[in-house]
Amino acid sequence: xxxxxxxxxxxxxxxxxxxxxxxxxxxxxxxxxxxxxxxxxxxxxxxxxxxxxxxxxxxxxxxxxxxxxxxxxxxxxxxxxxxxxxxxxxxxxxxxxxxxxxxxxxxxxxxxxxxxxxxxxxxxxxxxxxxxxxxxxxxxxxxxxxxxxxxxxxxxxxxxxxxxxxxxxxxxxxxxxxxxxxxxxxxxxxxxx
Length: 193
What we know:
By secondary structure, this protein is α/β, with parallel strands linked by helices. The chain contains seven helices and five strands.
């Protein structure tokens, strides 16, 4: 069976790819992530995807268009987090299903199913809907046990490791309570002696 593996990032890719290969799937990779912002973050993740794929005997496809406007048009960004994420999953998996059909794949799946931080049931729902709309088959995997090994693989190979899911809203949630890159006047800094 031929499967197109939607790849959210290179960090989450190793475990699912290894599993599919071991099970005899003819696998190709597809990077489509209009949710990733800002532009420089998008480029870092795309580059890591390409670095991962370049020394492997595997087909890798990437939509290299920065998708800020498409993302904001498709996803109800004014809504609560869950609704935004569901719209994002739908957008990416529908496109993956369409790409799979266009390129002659029997099925598709996503590395989103490796992360325990993703809303698994929402990802599955989006995958099923994409399969219905495209006539394809969505492989419902549970790769969460492979999360740590995927991340370790990426660390050993010095692949770019992002610090938030992708959209500007997840970036805000990730760093809102930190002092990362904030200027703190000397008068307000704690004495570190």
